[in-house]
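Narrative progress, year one. The postdoctoral researcher (J.K.) led the effort to move from monomer predictions toward full complexes, under supervision of the PI. The following entry was the first complex the group processed end to end, covering 565 residues in total.
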Amino acid sequence: MRIKRRTLGQIASFTTLALISVVFLAPVIWIALTALKTQREALALPPVWSFTPQWHNFIEAWQSNDFAKSFLITTSVSVFSVALTLALSIPLGYVLARYRRGWLSAFEVAIMVVRMLPEILFMLPLYVIYQKTALFDTQIGIILAFQIFNIPYCAWLIRQFISEVPPELDEAALLDGASLWQVLWFVIVPTIRPGIVAAAVLSFIAVWTNLLLPLALTYSETPMVATTIANFKGYGSFNWPVMAAAAIISLLPQFIFFLFAQKYIVKGLTLGAVKG
Amino acid sequence: MKRRIPILFLLPAAAVLFLIAAYPVGFGLWAGLHQWNWALGQAESWNFIGLDNYAQVFANKAFWNSIKVTVTFTAIAVTLQLILGLGIAILLHNNMRASWFFRSAVVFPLMVSDIVAAVIFSTILDPNLGILNYALSVVGLPGPNWIGNPNLVIITLSLVDTWWQTGNIILILLAGMTSIPQDRIDMASIDGASGWRMFFHITLPALKPFILVALVFRTIDALRVFALAWAITKGGPLRATEVSQLYIFKQGIGGAYNMGYASAAATVFAIFVGLVAGIYLLAMRRTPA
């Protein structure tokens, strides 16, 4: 009897989980189906379930509204932005993990506060400054702007990982005559590789998905995926399937990371909770 | 041991953050003290007016409306996410064998950007052509006007945010649950605790610090909502979804170009977010982890 109740409970919670999963996945599946329909089929109610997949919607999406250009530019901006973030925040994270000074803790708190502040606080003045310095609507400008939020996040993440590496490892290498740069590059970086991957993947996704920064600081020369997706919606009688196809293409990087780096993503997202 | 700090490790990041974050914020604070409305042809000249912009911000109904809308959105969204997240995390934790697939499914929306979430739900929630209201009509329920009804629309956005971000809370709580020592659970079950009693006396107290962290992260994030409102509703109807970041964006570079006023409003809103964060952080210090 006891065992029976237990199995019933398990079936119930299993079913609940299955239903919840369907609810969470359905919107994305629905938009993926929409991307394969004709406009008429996409608007049809009751919905059409059997249709000839219109793969050319993806080509049309790729070719319209600067989407291809924005995809390539966003890729380039993401890659260089992440490289810069890592180059700056790995050494910073090392100092935060290994040294104790009053002003250093104050600095650490300050950059954590920066991460919590609303983007618009930075975007209003940066818009003006960028207009005056010709950084507006350039890749360098937007790459720099993303550092505001990504350096604090990555430095903090990397600091947590370095804190778990025993300092004796550094000491031993230093005694062997290594410079501090060599310690960082040959001892620390290989040891905390999972942390670096997590930081890289999460800041890549942050650059890829953010809307407000490109909306404020870029225009037609440096279109970003987030803003071009919005443009698909902006036109009067917009084409649902093509817009859906663009949305699906824009999810590709996240999808790839989710398949191959989920472990690191989860680690990066939960570290804050575990470390406090 | 007190060693010399390798200043070259610190300096590049600090310099970039100074140029790109600290200096602009300082410039914004200074701009907030000026009458500087580009729409009135003042792009090249500004007048110092002290705290007048701040007085205008505090006297402005639209600004307070934006705070109200933002707080309402945050309260509904975070509450829903916390309850749902806790429930789902417990289910996942108790069904370890199947949980890889289910966890992936509920976490997947985190990978979707807010602008794509907005695109997806604009089509699904469309009152005439959307699949959701059609599905409701099939089971005989009236489909509300999710986006057009000013009394409902903020709940709609909170629901979209719940779909998008509940995974975040689930991940944090799952991490918390695996940290509950198994012997405590065993002890309690030997004492005959099960089901709800186990939940209220063992699981929930042990999870408290994790719930608090999830609450802080999600609240700060939700207060800064922008893309969902900008892309699904443009702040409408009747300012019903004009959240603070959107309001300030519109007052500044998003159309009105009243830069002095927008800068002051941004400062006030940033202080508000900072205060909320500070209160939470104090509460966290008080809770022994």
